[in-house]
Amino acid sequence: MTIDDEVLSNEEKISFALRSLYHSRGYQPYRMSKFEEYELYMKNKDFLLSPEVITFTDTNGKLMALKPDVTLSIVRSSRPQAGEVQKIYYDENVYRVSESSRRFREIRQAGLECLGAVDGRCIAEVLSLALESLRVISEDARLCVSLLGVVEERLDALALSGDARREVLRCMGGKTVHELRTVCESAGLSPADTERLARLTLCGGAPGDALSELREIGCSESALSEVARLAESLPAEASGRVCLDFSVLGDMRYYNGIAFQGYVRGVPSSVLSGGSYDRLLRRMGRPGSGVGFACYLDKLERLEEVQSHA
Amino acid sequence: MLNIALPKGRLGEKVYAMFERAGFACPAIREENRRLYFENEALDLRYFWVKPSDVAIYVERGAADIGVAGKDILLEYRPDVYELLDLGVGRCRMCVAAPEGFTDDMTRTLRVATKFSNIASAYYTSLGRDIDVIPLNGSIELAPILGLSDVIVDIVETGTTLRENHLAVMETIVPISARLIANKASFVFRKTRIDELVRAVSREVQT
Predict the structure, then answer these.
(1) What does the pLDDT look like over A194-236, one tens digit per residue?
(2) A175 and B83 in contact by Cβ < 8 A?
(3) C-alpha distances in angstroms, A120 versus A123, A181, A245?
(4) Which residues of A touch B187 (CB under 8 A)?
């Protein structure tokens, strides 16, 4: 059977291309039910992009939810063998409150997850596939990458905890350096330490190019080698498309290691989001590590229009 | 072209003057007319005037790459944008005000009239105080006078309106001023230009 390209929407074309890409790299398709027990989301509410969930009572009296997220379900049902990495891709609708309209929406997302004995090579592969996914969407794309260990190390070194730590992370996430300085001053940090955090917040550019800046900021040798490893792991075609960005911060109760967001020109918010989530696995009592990403296909509806307009 | 959303009115004019001094001028904006957008092709800039409370929406949705919005709007609507600079203008305070001599009866739910429901709720949640938010769109000061509310949460600049209506500030929740905000995708694709503007404008900020 051949399908006439003309009848496919932009979203559908990208969805097929992404599925084909993931399949060609040995990832297995994952098909899931639209419903999940609400308890799963209640226990991991902060992991969700929006805490609101559509619920209903099933015929057996169980409180169910229309899926607001895919990763939690995959983690719950995955069973990687010891020493093995389970590689999964999906293309599913989820139901959550849209960032912009603040109303529930059906949102189509495609992505992949690696679970189990995830190592540096596997993370590099996921990063490379995130870049390729962005290129499927648009040639003019950027991937902003953060290493949460680098940020956590700085905050630990400054003995920042509780409210001050949360406030610093909020300011870093919004690149709100003027408020960061006020928060640091209230927390009793020295002007030099405050300035180092401000520089980390604004640090950007290619990972390899940022090393000297990070050294000046006072990052440890292990943090620097983490950044160097990231730089080395990037494929040649990543040049000019990947930048360090320490404002990309997931909830550190769930995420660790790498975190990234992808942008394409013409779409005002990130179209891809992902990272390592070993802490989520530990919270759910699962062994091993996890890394993955999702592409938000609903945001691409008007991409063709925007690009032709540009 | 770098699209810049400015808030219509005195604050916007003050901010534009800062941008102009910083080297981001658009002479057409000074002409007397009713146009809402102005371009300087030589500098690859386009300014547009929008309602102050809408600036964050224009920026969040990418119609503007950068914009200037009050901290009150950013706290109330929490748009997903970068907040790059405190411009130090439009300074005022978000306050709790009440009729002179008011004392809070902790045995009752506090009735709070405000345009800023989210800010008021977050503030009283942080205090563990149960409140009934009464959302209003204007003339907030009337609410406690007419018994519609016990207190109000509103912006206070000089305090004249409060004094003339026999109200007094009870608490300052947060200081407010105009902030330079940027769309996240624009910041990624136009980082050099936006960084250049932030550096230049920051030199114009009165500390």
Answers:
(1) 999 999 999 988 998 899 999 999 899 999 999 999 999 988 8
(2) yes
(3) 5, 35, 20
(4) 175
